[in-house]
Amino acid sequence: MAASLFEPGPFGEAPIFDVEGFAAIRDRIDGVICATSGGFDPIHPGHASCLLASKDHVERTAGVRPDLLVVIVNGDGFLRNKKGAAFQDLRTRAQIVACLRGVDAVVTYESEVDMSVEGALRAIRPRFFTKGGDRTDMTNIAEWPLGQEIGFEIVTGVGRDKDWSSSDMLARWSELARNGEI
Fold first, then answer.
1. pLDDT tens digits, residue range 112-151?
2. For residues 55 and 62, what is the distance between their CA atoms, to the nearest angstrom?
3. Using an 8 Å Cβ cutoff, are 107 and 72 in contact?
4. Residues 88 and 95 sit within 8 Å (Cβ to Cβ)
């Protein structure tokens, strides 16, 4: 891998690409890529543990240590379709994820209609795609057929159990605000 492709930002954070930007450099990247994805709106311990554990979990379960962790941050359109609105915008969420230990690159993926990250995965072409929490198999991982089609392995059970929900956190905050408690 050419080191200049992944120069850290001014605070040591991982570089942030859009899908087209990552696709433009993909053929110059050597090594095993592991990708994961999420809305991270807001980020919670389940998200963070998945990012921190992805490389180790792949190594334990597949016997291969990924060289790079590329994190796909779902766009505002995804969150509008899923929750009605984004709490934090895509740029903010990508910047937060880029600051986390173990993240080598962030790819933002904006689509008004795609409730998967298939477009980003086609550009990244990872060897592994990790999922944590309640994403366990072909019944609840939208990208499962794509993994079969283009040849990446999906590794589940990464990080902490599904003990947190961004939606629940925001609903509780909204309730406190409505009741004048904050």
1. 777 899 999 999 999 999 998 777 677 789 899 999 999 9
2. 10
3. yes
4. no
Taking the CB of residue 164, how many other CB atoms lie within 10 A of it?
Answer: 18
Cβ atoms of residues 97 and 106 within 8 Å:
yes
Burial class (CB in 10 A: 0-12, 13-18, 19+), 32: middle
> Does residue 40 register a pLDDT over 90?
yes
Is the pTM of the predicted complex or chain greater than 0.70? yes
The CATH superfamily assigned to 3-178 is: HUPs (3.40.50.620)
Query: Per-residue pLDDT tens for 57-115?
Result: 999 999 999 999 999 999 998 888 888 888 999 999 999 999 999 999 999 999 877 78
> SS3 for the chain, per residue?
CCHHHHCCCCCCCCCEEEHHHHHHHHHHCCCCEEEEEECCCCCCHHHHHHHHHHHHHHHHHHCCCCCEEEEEEECHHHHHHHHCCCCCCHHHHHHHHHCCCCCCEEEEECCCCCCCCHHHHHHHCCCEEEEECCCCCCCCCCCHHHHHHHCCEEEEEECCCCCCCHHHHHHHHHHHHHCCCC
Rounded to the nearest angstrom, the gap between the alpha carbon of residue 165 and the centroid of all alpha carbons in its chain is: 15
Neighbour count for residue 21 (Cβ, 10 Å): 14
